[in-house]
Write a structure and sequence with these properties.
By secondary structure, the protein is an alpha/beta fold. The strands form 4 sheets. It has a 9-stranded mixed sheet. A 7-stranded mixed sheet has the order 15-16-14-13-17-20-21. Helix 9 packs across helix 10 and helix 10 packs across helix 12. The longest helix is centred in the middle third of the chain and has 18 residues. The protein binds thymidine-5'-diphosphate (TYD) and magnesium ion (MG).
């Protein structure tokens, strides 16, 4: 029997050391002193073979593919993000902030799955059976194929699988289940990793499609989800602002589909509703012909999404002017404001600038640069961007407007929502075929301001 040795692990980043103390990585990165927590290695008798099957190397040509039928969850947005439905035997991690709606999404998905592939075993390790029942009642879910179990011991769950024989397993959440053989607490890196590994073996070995819920901790340090990302087949993140109704489900890894997909939902009185027309949703309350509001035709993966960017520029009352940014990258906005000042001569040194994406949306791509800049200029000059126009373009430090990807898809979406004009990078027009709206190509920030605000 091998000598059992302790290791000491940081609960924030997973750093492991043979000696106790504080985590040098966290100290370097965040300045925080995180204590290393003692862990015993799991007793693993005869851990020799770890592969999934006892197979031999074979020529690629000899390998035949079994046709796997995907199971539909009945939620179109979720099915699309998964790559067309749930693959039997796959392990899917759904991460997100507490309270964002992970349990709601899974219980709603369980509704259709319990009919298509019964039974579905929903293991709730953080809410009581009554709480889950209350939610299910509220959502009108009354399925015999859905089995609910409040259990935190993963060993007990595994033991029960032979009797229950579920086709779908939901573990809510991976941070609250544990293996008693391990001494560390539920939610610790060691527990999460071991439990994840065990569930992987269960999913692959028995062909049970397994969903894991993982909470993102508030520092964004993903003690739970992050340590599992390499292990699972699919990683979906559920994002959104707590106080806004809209939620985006994003695939960040998918062995069975594209990672370019997003699903858009709205949290309503009776659970999550699919938002089939997200652009319309974000533009619903758009003000017309007011200074500081610009529509950008964004692209989320392969999906076009129109968003309204708002800027408010007002004289700073004293001292250093403020820059407040919601829904966009702070440093990028500061950079764009500097370009606006230097290349277009808009004096912002004594102005407070506030930038916001309306409706709690978020822009992540440089294609929104020009829209941010135009919104700020529009607010400063107190002159609106008139008409049904969308603005697109990445802005460089010399004030040049650079090409964006997916122009046609973006403009098609804009046309569908009633926009008739677009200001786009001139360089994009070289390759452009017939576009669905009237386009105006601009090469510099100066051109763009001339076109939109003069
Ligand atoms: P929940 O799925 O419990 O979040 P998570 O599992 O990610 O922690 O959702 C929690 C929030 O959703 C809660 O604040 C209430 C809200 N909610 C609704 O607004 N409508 C509903 O029908 C349901 C079920 C939840
Ligand atoms: Mg929950």
């Amino acid at each position: 029997m091998a000598h059992e040795r302790s290791i000491y692990r940081c609960q924030q980043c997973g750093f492991a050391s043979p000696k106790p103390g504080t985590c040098p990585d966290c100290k370097r990165m965040t300045g925080e002193l995180m204590a290393l927590v003692e862990e015993r290695a799991a007793p693993t008798p005869g851990r020799r073979r770890t592969g999934l099957s006892h197979s031999r190397p074979r020529p690629l040509g000899d390998i035949t593919m079994e046709h796997t039928d995907r199971l539909r969850t009945g939620i179109g947005e979720l099915d699309r993000v998964l790559g067309g439905g749930v693959v039997p035997g796959s392990l899917v991690l759904i991460g997100g902030d507490p309270g964002i709606g992970k349990s709601t999404l899974l219980i709603q998905a369980a509704r259709a799955l319990a009919t298509a592939a019964p039974p579905v075993l929903y293991v709730s390790a953080e809410e009581s059976a009554a709480q889950v029942k209350l939610r299910a009642d509220r959502l009108g879910i009354t399925s015999d194929g859905l089995l609910l179990w409040t259990e935190t011991d993963l060993g007990a769950v595994e033991a029960e699988l032979d009797t229950v024989k579920p086709q779908i397993l939901v573990i809510d959440s991976i941070q609250t289940v544990f293996l008693p053989a391990l001494e560390s607490a539920p939610g610790s890196v060691a527990q999460v990793r071991e439990c994840g590994g065990r569930l992987m073996t269960i999913a692959k070995g028995r062909g049970i499609a397994t969903f894991l819920v993982g909470h993102v901790t508030k520092e964004g340090a993903l003690a739970g989800p992050r340590v599992l990302e390499h292990l699972v087949d699919t990683v979906l993140y559920f994002e959104g602002e707590q106080h806004h109704a809209y939620r985006v489900l994003r695939a960040v890894k998918n062995r069975f589909g594209s990672t370019n997909e997003i699903g858009v939902f709205q949290m309503a009185e009776r659970g999550l509703l699919e938002v089939k027309n997200p652009s319309g949703f974000f533009l619903a309350e758009r003000p017309r012909d007011v200074p500081g509001s610009v529509i950008v035709a964004g692209l989320e993966g392969t999906r076009p999404l129109l968003l309204e960017l708002q800027a408010l520029v007002a004289p700073a009352s004293f001292g250093t002017p403020r820059r407040t940014v919601l829904g966009a990258d702070y440093n990028r906005v500061c950079l764009l404001l500097a370009v606006l000042e230097k290349r277009a001569g808009v004096p912002l040194a004594s102005q407070d600038v506030f930038v916001n994406v309306a409706g709690g949306g978020r822009v992540t791509e440089p294609a929104a640069d020009l829209a941010v800049l135009v919104a700020a200029a529009s607010s400063y000059m107190d002159r609106p961007v008139r008409g049904e126009v969308v603005v697109l373009g990445e802005v460089g430090l010399t004030g040049e407007v650079r090409a964006v990807t997916g122009l046609e898809a973006r403009l098609r979406e804009a046309a569908q929502l009633g926009f008739t004009q677009a200001v786009v990078p001139k360089s994009n027009l070289l390759e452009a075929p017939r576009l669905p709206v009237e386009v105006h190509g601009v090469a510099t920030v100066h051109d763009a301001l001339d076109a939109l605000l003069s």
